[in-house]
Automatic annotation (TrEMBL):
<dbReference type="InterPro" id="IPR016192">
    <property type="entry name" value="APOBEC/CMP_deaminase_Zn-bd"/>
</dbReference>
<keyword id="KW-0479">Metal-binding</keyword>
<feature type="binding site">
    <location>
        <position position="64"/>
    </location>
    <ligand>
        <name>Zn(2+)</name>
    </ligand>
</feature>
<feature type="binding site">
    <location>
        <position position="98"/>
    </location>
    <ligand>
        <name>Zn(2+)</name>
    </ligand>
</feature>
<keyword id="KW-0378">Hydrolase</keyword>
<comment type="function">
    <text>Catalyzes the deamination of adenosine to inosine at the wobble position 34 of tRNA(Arg2).</text>
</comment>
<comment type="similarity">
    <text>Belongs to the cytidine and deoxycytidylate deaminase family. ADAT2 subfamily.</text>
</comment>
<protein>
    <recommendedName>
        <fullName>tRNA-specific adenosine deaminase</fullName>
        <ecNumber>3.5.4.33</ecNumber>
    </recommendedName>
</protein>
<dbReference type="InterPro" id="IPR016193">
    <property type="entry name" value="Cytidine_deaminase-like"/>
</dbReference>
<feature type="domain" description="CMP/dCMP-type deaminase">
    <location>
        <begin position="13"/>
        <end position="125"/>
    </location>
</feature>
<comment type="subunit">
    <text>Homodimer.</text>
</comment>
<keyword id="KW-0862">Zinc</keyword>
<dbReference type="InterPro" id="IPR002125">
    <property type="entry name" value="CMP_dCMP_dom"/>
</dbReference>
<dbReference type="GO" id="GO:0052717">
    <property type="term" value="F:tRNA-specific adenosine-34 deaminase activity"/>
</dbReference>
<dbReference type="Pfam" id="PF00383">
    <property type="entry name" value="dCMP_cyt_deam_1"/>
</dbReference>
<keyword id="KW-0819">tRNA processing</keyword>
<feature type="active site" description="Proton donor">
    <location>
        <position position="66"/>
    </location>
</feature>
Length: 162
């Protein structure tokens, strides 16, 4: 789906389509950065923003795909920071920083591809977004197009360590 594109009337996009959009964002990532892509959709499935990891490109440790996509979406949707009703699709399970940002932005859903057993904070190592002490807990679906998302990351890391 291209920015601003909407799904067919009456039918929200399938989670697989959301993750495919995130894979397209990952493909645009600077070659020095880990190819993770994230896309934010409004409640009707219209794309609001997309981004790829840019830590190396920007020299910014917080420039994860999720953070950049949330920032861009907040500029065009909601009241400046609340992304209520929105869905974030990302190719890799979010880390603690990104999971915290998803809660604070009040996204409705998080859909991701590959699980991240070393740093994942949406069910693997931690489960930040479903902590009962929080006042907002987004719905989560992981493992969507998991093999495709993992293959992109595997190829990147194989090339880094010949």
């Amino acid at each position: 789906m291209s920015p601003g594109a909407a799904p067919s009337p009456g039918s929200p996009p399938a989670d697989e389509d959301l993750v495919r959009a995130a894979l397209a964002a990952a493909a645009q990532t600077d070659p020095r950065d880990v190819p993770v892509g994230a896309v934010v959709f409004d409640a009707n499935g219209r794309e609001l923003a997309r981004a790829g990891n840019a830590r190396e490109a920007l020299g910014d440790p917080t420039a994860h795909a999720e953070i950049l996509a949330l920032r861009r979406a907040a500029q065009v949707y909601g009241d400046g920071w609340r992304l209520e009703g929105a869905t974030l699709a990302v190719t890799l399970e979010p880390c603690t920083m990104c999971a915290g940002a998803l809660v604070l932005a009040r996204v409705r859903r998080v859909v991701f591809g590959a699980w991240e057993p070393k740093t994942g904070a949406v069910g693997s190592l931690w489960d930040v977004v479903r902590d009962r002490r929080l006042n907002h807990r987004p719905e989560v679906r992981g493992g969507v197009l998991e093999a495709e998302c993992a293959a992109v990351l595997d190829a990147f890391f194989r090339a880094q360590r010949p």
